[in-house]
Write a structure and sequence with these properties.
single chain, alpha/beta, Arc Repressor Mutant, subunit A, D-Maltodextrin-Binding Protein, domain 2, five-stranded mixed beta sheet, three-stranded antiparallel beta sheet, 12 strands
Length: 313
């Protein structure tokens, strides 16, 4: 008895009946629908016949080898198709949903410099070592980044430590990258590669500097006043990308950290450690008792990248 029931499963399997019916309309032929479903033609014909009998309605008009849906068939198709393919795709969509729910995400806020010059190398190594982690980068300058951390939208931020924008007691700052303040110029500039440059020598040339709010070097503006130099800036920039463009174009030179400079760069960084304190970029997060493993691993990768840069070649 069980064997007979399996042989005529189409009689009671409404989903299979509707699938055969929808496929027949879509392919315009019972034969082609059967090929698509991996069944023989008679099986699909019986599915449609069983569906017509159970609904007491004629779904197709047949004229020899040609078949087309009746008005009732068209109406049933418009109603049934979303359910049929919804059920057929359920397994795949459910599997994808589980992957989305179960996957581990790392949300990072980063300002312009961190996003362009610090994170790419870290992310490359981190994703190689931890392929199960999915990373989302949120572009945000200082205040917005702090708000994202406060609202738990991001796990942490990568930001420079700025004396005029201290982190509150609710946050912990872990320095990861130590950068040297430098004079950034084109390679053929008269001051390029010069040692112990003075403020007077630098001020002879057209300077472009970041907005004071976004400076990372604490005494960047104050040092000119301390040397009785009333330096007027003809060009100022708000972000790293525009600053580089001015220097590349030969419009001006700037003072920033060597985080800007990469291997085979078109610009040159001449160190100014005698004039300015070091700059640090680090990880900012909420104070908590336990640090998630994904953040611990990120810090380890960042420190490995930093140590590579400081190793002698």
């Amino acid at each position: 008895m069980k064997k007979i029931d399996q042989q005529f499963y189409y009689k009671n399997n409404r989903l299979q009946q509707l699938r055969g019916f929808c496929s027949t309309i879509e392919f315009g032929s019972i034969c082609r629908a059967a090929e698509h479903m991996g069944l023989n033609q008679s099986c699909v014909s019986l599915q449609i016949k069983a569906l017509e009998d159970s609904l007491a309605v004629k779904l197709f008009e047949r004229n020899g080898p040609h078949i087309k849906p009746t008005a009732e068939g068209k109406r049933l198709y418009s109603l049934a198709r979303p359910y049929v393919y919804g059920i057929l795709n359920l397994h795949h969509e459910f599997s994808e949903e589980l992957k989305s729910v179960l996957r581990t995400e790392l949300h990072i806020a980063a300002n312009g410099t961190s996003k362009s010059y610090i994170l790419p190398e870290i992310i490359k190594l981190y994703t190689q070592m931890y392929p199960e982690i999915y990373i989302v980068i949120h572009f945000a300058e200082h205040q917005e980044a702090m708000e994202l951390i406060e609202k738990d939208i991001v796990d942490f931020a990568i930001l420079p430590q700025r004396a005029h924008l201290p982190f509150s007691h609710n946050f912990v700052y872990t320095p990861l990258f130590f950068c040297t303040p430098c004079l950034i110029t084109l390679p053929n500039h008269p001051l390029a590669h010069q040692k112990n440059l003075t403020v007077q020598e630098i001020s002879k040339y057209e300077l472009t500097l970041p907005d004071p709010t976004f400076r990372v070097i604490d005494n960047l503006y104050k040092i000119f006043l301390d040397h009785n130099i009333n330096k007027k800036l003809r060009v100022s920039f708000l972000n790293t990308e525009s600053g580089r463009e001015f220097i590349d174009a030969g419009v001006a030179i700037t003072i920033s950290s060597d985080v800007w400079i990469k291997k085979n760069d078109t610009l040159v960084a001449t160190p100014l450690p005698h004039l300015f304190p070091d700059v640090t970029y680090g990880l900012v997060k909420k104070i908590s008792r336990e640090i998630p493993e994904k953040i611990i691993n990120f810090i380890a990768v960042a420190r490995e990248i930093e140590s590579r840069k400081r190793r002698p070649h």
